Amino acid sequence: MMHHSSRSKFLAIAIMTAFLLGTGVGVTWAATRLELSNQFPPSHYISKGMEFFAKKVSEYSNGAVEVKLFHAAQLYKDTEIVEAIQEGLIPAGLVPVNKWSGMIPAADVFEVPFIFTDLSSIKKFLDAGAAELFDNEFQKRGAKTLMWVDLGYVQFWNNKRPLTKPQDFKGLKMRSFSSSDADTLTTLGASPVVMSSSEVYMAMQRGTVDGGTTGWPAAVSRKLIEVQKFVTEANYATPQFVMQASLKWWQKLQKNEQDAILKAGRDTEEWIRQAIAKSEGDAQKVAQKAGVQIHSLNPESRAAFMKATEPVQKRFIEKSGPLGKKLVDIAISLK
């Protein structure tokens, strides 16, 4: 027979256990939550990449880390995300690298024209020391890199003539996507116009601008292929995103949790690169079918463009100092 005191102790334990199971407290104790802010809509392949990342983190951490995704800038816009990560307002987010350029001017290296040639050169560049140099700079400012995210390459589109050599840009009015990009267009002899992506179709249709700079998938999804006759496949700039965690949050994790997240990140980088290559290839076929004339730069014409835009590279190095110089040197050494 059970004594009165041990029976009530047993009962208390049973009640407490039932209470914990009922409230699900036991469950939340088990998992570290990684809330992740993403600006892309759920249908975008980068968002699909984030879903893949969440699955891999759960798998590699044996369920110890749970990723909760917030797509379509539900939590933070691309203009707010750097501060949110630095302040530790959110564990992690996807950041356009150029949003760091105010604090780290070298972050604009991906928009220095013609220093990268194809999708494989970004991976080589990051692996050759660039990722580590950037991670050191980001950590000084409260952010830890979890993975790099490619967005593909930018091409030259226009309505006037095939742009096969630098001189062909003279007198063209072209929409540009950033100040570095505008510098490239000016250096080639075009007049850059800054406008939001939603206004570009109308401006091209009306002839307010002769052309613009954008990637294959964007030109197709925004229907620019209906209002542009020529494209030069130049792969001259490649905007990058980086998934970053708040350093304060990151440092509180167990070593095995950190390892699982970084391993999932490496797998996701690869997954996204393949998705981009496919999406660029598909979009190119659609543009060709629509009657857009495609001109690809051969090594000689690429060299001519590189020479013509050298002043842009010089200005970048002046502005970004030793770090910028180091990064450009790494990129060029891989050619």
What are the segments in which pLDDT stays under 50 over at least 5 consecutive residues? 23-28
Residue share in helix: 40-55%
Envelope shape: globular
User: How far apart lie the N and C ends?
Assistant: 83 Å
Q: Element order, helices and strands?
A: HHEHEHEHEEEHEHEHEEHHEHH
Q: Radius of gyration in whole Å, from Cα?
A: 24 Å
The count of β-strands is 11
What order do the helices and strands come in, and which of them pair?
Layout: H1 4-23, H2 25-30, E1 32-37, H3 45-60, E2 65-70, H4 81-86, E3 92-96, H5 119-140, E4 143-150, E5 154-158, E6 173-176, H6 179-188, E7 191-194, H7 200-206, E8 211-214, H8 216-221, E9 230-237, E10 240-246, H9 247-251, H10 255-289, E11 293-296, H11 299-308, H12 310-333
Helix pairs in contact: 3-10, 5-12
Question: How would you describe this structure to a colleague?
Answer:
With 335 residues, this protein is of the alpha/beta class. Helix content is 50%, strand content 18%. It has helices at 4-23, 25-30, 45-60, 81-86, 119-140, 179-188, 200-206, 216-221, 247-251, 255-289, 299-308, 310-333, and strands at 32-37, 65-70, 92-96, 143-150, 154-158, 173-176, 191-194, 211-214, 230-237, 240-246, 293-296. Helix 5 crosses helix 12. The radius of gyration is 24 Å and the shape is globular.
